[in-house]
C-alpha cells in the first residue's frame, strides 16, 4: 500500500442552520482554500509526496454522505481535481439536527478504511452550531485522540458567538489541535485557507523530526 504523509477528512455541517446559499459559500470556500499554493505544496511535498483527502457532509444522527471519497493527492493535478470535486459537491439533503458525535463516528470508520497508511490523521469539523443530537462528541473525540487522530475546528459564529469555547470543550483534540473562527459564511474561505495552511505547517514540522 502507498504510504502518505497526511490523511485529512473535511467534515462539513449540512444541518438545518446552513442554507443552500451558505452551503455554496462553504463548498466554494473549501475549493478555493484547497487551491492555495501553500496548501497544495504541503499536501504534496512531504517525504511520501502525497496525502489522502476526503469530504464528509453531515447533519443529524444517521444523516451523512461521503461526498468525495478518499483521494490520493500527489501532484498539482490531483490537488486541483480534489478541489474541483469539493467545489462542485451538491448540498446533502435538507438539513436536520447537529450531530457532531455521530459525524465523528463516521470519520472513525472512514479512517479505518484508508487506502494506505498515513503518518498523520486529521479531521476538520466545520459548522455553525454545537451538538444538539446523537451521541455526545466528547467521548468519541477522546477515543479518536487515543488512536492518534487530531481533530480541528472551524467555527462560524453568526448564530452562536461562543461556539469556539464549545468546540474546545467537546470537539477538538489531539496533537496541535486548534479551532479557527469566522463571523459569517462570507469569511469562510479565508478561515478555511488559514486552517489548512496551519495543518500543513503541523505536518511539515512533524516530518522534519526524526520518526
Kindly list the characteristics that best describe this protein.
Rossmann fold; 7 helices; 41% helix; alpha/beta
**Unreliable segments (pLDDT under 50, ≥5 consecutive)?**
none
CATH class reads Alpha Beta
Counting helices, strands and paired strands, the structural category is alpha/beta
Enumerate the strands of the largest sheet in spatial order, edge to edge or round the barrel.
3-2-1-4-5-6
Estimated share of beta-strand residues: 15-25%
Rg from C-alpha positions? 15 Å
Describe the structure.
- With 211 residues, this protein is α/β, with parallel strands linked by helices.
- The protein has a single domain (6-208), classed as Rossmann fold (3-Layer(aba) Sandwich), CATH 3.40.50.410.
- The protein has 7 helices and 6 strands; from the N terminus they run βααββααβαβαβα.
- The chain has helices spanning 20-34, 37-44, 76-87, 100-112, 137-146, 163-170, 188-208; strands at 6-13, 51-58, 64-73, 121-127, 149-156, 179-182.
- The chain has a 6-stranded mixed β-sheet, with helices on both faces.
- α5 (137-146) links the parallel β4 and β5 (149-156).
- The longest helix is centred in the C-terminal third of the chain and has 21 residues, at 188-208.
- The protein is globular, with a radius of gyration of 15 Å.
- The two termini are 19 Å apart.
Amino acid at each position: 500500500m502507498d504510504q502518505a504523509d497526511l490523511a485529512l477528512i473535511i467534515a462539513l455541517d449540512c444541518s438545518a442552520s446552513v442554507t443552500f446559499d451558505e452551503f455554496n459559500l462553504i463548498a466554494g470556500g473549501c475549493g478555493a482554500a484547497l487551491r492555495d499554493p501553500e496548501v497544495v505544496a504541503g499536501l504534496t511535498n512531504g517525504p511520501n509526496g502525497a496525502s489522502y483527502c476526503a469530504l464528509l457532509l453531515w447533519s443529524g444522527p444517521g444523516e451523512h454522505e461521503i461526498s468525495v471519497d478518499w483521494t490520493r493527492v500527489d501532484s498539482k493535478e490531483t490537488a486541483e481535481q480534489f478541489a474541483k470535486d469539493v467545489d462542485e459537491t451538491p448540498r446533502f439533503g435538507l438539513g436536520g439536527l447537529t450531530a457532531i458525535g455521530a459525524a465523528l463516528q463516521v470519520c472513525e470508520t472512514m479512517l479505518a478504511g484508508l487506502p494506505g497508511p498515513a503518518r498523520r490523521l486529521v479531521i476538520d469539523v466545520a459548522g455553525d452550531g454545537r451538538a444538539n443530537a446523537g451521541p455526545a462528541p466528547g467521548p468519541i473525540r477522546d477515543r479518536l485522540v487515543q488512536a492518534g487522530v487530531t481533530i480541528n475546528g472551524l467555527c462560524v459564529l453568526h448564530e452562536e458567538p461562543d461556539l469556539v469555547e464549545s468546540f474546545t470543550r467537546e470537539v477538538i483534540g489531539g496533537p496541535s489541535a486548534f479551532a479557527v473562527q469566522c463571523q459569517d459564511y462570507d469569511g469562510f474561505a479565508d478561515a478555511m485557507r488559514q486552517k489548512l495552511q496551519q495543518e500543513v505547517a503541523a505536518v511539515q514540522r512533524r516530518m522534519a523530526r526524526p520518526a
